[in-house]
Predict the 3D structure of the following.
Amino acid sequence: MAIPIRFLTLALVILSVLLLSSSLGGVTAKETKRSEAEVQRMYERWLVENRKNYNALGEKERRFNIFKDNLKLIEAHNSVPERTYELGLTRFADLTDDEFRAIHLRGKMVRTSDPVIGDRYLYKEGDVLPDEVDWRKVQLFRSKIKETVGLNKIKTGELVSLSEQELLDCDRGGNSGNFGCLGGNAADAFEFIIENSGIVTDKVYPYTENDTAACKAIEMVTTRYVTIDSYEDAPHNDEMSLKKAVAHQPISVMVEAENMKLYKSGVFTGPCDHWYGNHNVVVVGYGTTERGEDYWIIRNSWGANWGESGYITLQRNFHNSTGNCGVAIRPFDPLMKGVLRII
């Protein structure tokens, strides 16, 4: 399967993140008039760095033209003084905007039932919150960006990597299911885990990158697995309540990510074209830069050769209640009363 995991990895990052309550890919070009030969050399190096190999006749040349267009956009953006963020030659530098949207932004905000909105993180006047929080500083966040960590570590002290492939194969179709690599919602993944009485580890059900495999029968009684009791929405359209929630644990959100394709570093301020959300991510912290720019720390699923080693800092304290790029529209998180079960 050529299309990489998107929402599934994020659902497990969220669950497991909550189970703890670059190379040329980051090179930024200065605005210069580059020769065709120089751009070609950059392209060849980028291909090696990102392990790209095109088999179709003429595809390498077609991708080179797209690469050149993206490079021009990068240089134009970065040439403007006082930008709060930089663009770079990420792993998506050979994709058009339409291709990027079709392949990587298939998350869905629509739910089939009324959400349960919890009030435990509702911000109230007089609440005292930390000035900054960064869950990445916890030791278990120092592993590779794909690895899953979270609330289970808080509850049990154990770090467990869960099976994305089980979600790919088994959480499918209907009004309540997801759609493999064609997109989905992390809340639906949580519902599957609840109804399935848990999810197994990567070791038991390894990732194969196959989007068409049948769901395997798993003997839960012989397999270590993680369960959750339920999940709930944090208060909607309220950045202060989101801040309160993140002060306690990482929180799942959806953002409008169409213009994040070439993000390299800094506080992303947009533009964001829509506000319905099309990509599942996890807010793992917040803070303020030395220049006074408030931001969210967001963990993505696009790999370490995108953004700040797989993370993006997004403008916080936005002028709209939705938060920038819709980050505060509908946060939610799983709940686990018990501990990791070993049956």
